[in-house]
Structures are given as C-alpha cells and as structure tokens.
Amino acid sequence: MVADSSIVTGIAWYRRNQWTRLRELAADPDKLEESYDDWLAGAQKALVQIAVTGVRAQRVDVDIDALVRWCQAEGRRLDSAARAAYTALQLRRNHQGQIVNKPSKSS
Prior knowledge:
Layout: E1 8-13, H1 19-25, H2 36-52, E2 56-61, H3 64-74, H4 80-100
Parallel strand pairs: 1-2
C-alpha cells in the first residue's frame, strides 16, 4: 500500500532552551522524556519512521510561551492531547500561509 503523498503530519519540535520549562508546566511530565537529548533522539527516529511509510513529516516549531497562551485561551491543560492539537493547528496555519504566499508563475 502506498501512502498518499499529499498527507503531511506535524511533529512538535521543541527548543532545547525551553525543554525544562515544558516539563515543569506539563500536566503530564511523565509522558515527556527527562532530557532534551532523549526527546530529540526519539523525535528524529519518529521522523525517519514516518518517512518510511511514505507520509511527509514536517517539524513544527513550538514556542512554549505561545503554547501556554493557547492552552489558557482554549481552557486546556498542557498535556499530550493539547500539545498534539496545538501542533496540528500550527501545521495547518503554516500550510495555509504557504498557499497564500505562494509566488505566482508570472513573477
């Protein structure tokens, strides 16, 4: 079975300098790796595993302050479900921006 190449999945991409804060604020720190390096190794492995299936994976930069504000505005706990929903929202926004900002062929 060949995957639909138009499918894109987002992978939350956290920043090294924000990892400790993410773990401190998370409602489920047990679901996050203890160290940034452990998380990074797992995230890179996930990118490869997704690519093997034929689905495009895209890193989605996650700023912890923006994530916290979004969770507060949405009335959500900062847990794995919220992190996934935020990542998906950012991925959609990024792709809508690419479509809107796509240069015309006449340029």
